[in-house]
Design goal:
Layout lengths: L4 E9 L2 E6 L2 E7 L1 H11 L4 E5 L11 H10 L4 E4 L5 H10 L3 E4 L1 H5 L2 H10 L4 E10 L2 E6 L4 E6 H11 L3 E6 L11 H10 L4 E4 L5 H11 L3 E4 L1 H4 L5 H10 L7
Parallel strand pairs: 1-4, 1-12, 4-5, 5-6, 6-7, 7-10, 10-11, 11-12
Antiparallel strand pairs: 1-2, 2-3, 7-8, 8-9
Helix pairs in contact: 1-2, 7-8
Length: 251
Amino acid sequence: MLSKRIIPCLDVKDGRTVKGVNFVDLRDAGDPVELAAQYAQQGADELVFLDITATHERRKTMIEMVKSVARQLNIPFTIGGGITEIADAEALLNAGADKISINSAAVRNPKLIEDLAKTFGVQFVVLAVDTKHVHGKNMVHLNGGRLITELETENWIKQAEDLGAGEILLTSMDHDGTKAGFDCGLLGKINQMINIPIIASGGAGSMEHFTEVFQKANVDAALAASVFHYGEILIPDLKLELKRNQIPVRI
């Protein structure tokens, strides 16, 4: 069985790592390059960097930060934010990123998924989906959760897989920052629908929550931010706990 992955997520705004609750009330959590190096040393399997205001403010992701991170890291990392065309992705790949994450741009132009997959390979393309429960349905949201779409989450993820997305980063906005646990019901449902890996995001507050999402939803990876940034959960401790629960992890 493949090892389950633990992925710290660094939301970056103006060159600093930030964290909020339900996508708002952001506070500073440190220098992203320094944090990245610490997580690599602790045993993180991968990292995700999201330039959370790049799309909203019509900016491009910071290439210089990517270069700095690439110099520090010996584990794969994904970059997202403001990627709207092949040239954006190419610049990030050349700067040292292993994968790119697209969200709003893919909804506005689904062919972008197909173009990226054909140009760089399926494994390079991570589709980030921000979902929220609205009137009994799971609805896709854009621009850091600021904008609701008419897309139902399940339908959009299936379409994205068909277009060539290699991985889904699914964030429950209802759970994000609450530390009340992942949305195991939704994650499990979608995991049964698709054949590509799912990274669970939104709601991690304890080591038990990680155990639960792997056992109940059988996701491939679990991502968190604040519990790692503020030292509430240490990755070596988390991996030992997962191993005790018969969940395969890389120690």
